[in-house]
Write a structure and sequence with these properties.
single chain, 286 residues, alpha/beta, Rossmann fold, 8 strands, 12% strand
Amino acid sequence: MVRRGHFWIELADVPGPRLSFRPNPVDLEKTLLRKTGEAIGRFKMIREGDRVAVALSGGKDSVTLLEVLLRLAQRSPVKFSVCAFTVEQGKFLAPFEPLGEYLKARKIDWTYHRDNPSLRLLDEQPEHGCDVCSRFRRRAVYQIVRGLGANVIAFGHTADDFCESFLRNALFTGRTSALPAVTYSAKREFRLIRPLVFVTEDLTQAFAEALCAPVIPCGCSQRSGEVRRSLRGWLAELEKDFPRLKESLLSAMGNIETSRMLDPRFLDLDGAAQPEPEAETLPVLG
């Protein structure tokens, strides 16, 4: 048993389907529990009595997130419950029934919602942009989660997504910014969390395959823009020579030296500020 923040994680005999992954199935599970528990503890993502609704898109990342949170809910002294939901916006490229059967067999509390406004949008404006679709999805998500009685919404963004967001903002929008690990909805009704911030996609891919969980492709994920494709390719090429690249990028996001940036709001232009304390570095990905 190891401790991650307020989370005590039993690394053996965790509940859930056994992995068929070879070799070292237990090591894969241990790694995911450790990294996710570290993120939850560090960023205070989950608190006593929370009801966490996992946004299940059908992809490997959200399936992994759901399974890991179910395991942690069984082992953590911080008592919380987990449910899941899926928003049908007409973008899935395969029937969702296989994953639905998988969830039912696991007796997972899951809600499948066909969002009629989104489906009408697809018919009326087939070339609508991602921003429009995102607004429709956000409205549907809050409506569903409110009905589920949940106060926390968990999304399956991984370390890869955080690194790509960080680079995209720096290179193409001129901002030092990335995805937030924890934030709140506009009216602070829901806490929005991303517990896989320290988990890379090679792990979620292996875990989903090990569970034999059906993965449902989405048209949106397969239509990633040119910038995202370019960044992914660039990172993959760099990682051949620098395998800890994502680890360094994540550490940079949590170790910001504001006095060495160019934003006057954070600069000691009059020489009156006290020295900044040394920042605690983020945990490694290994």
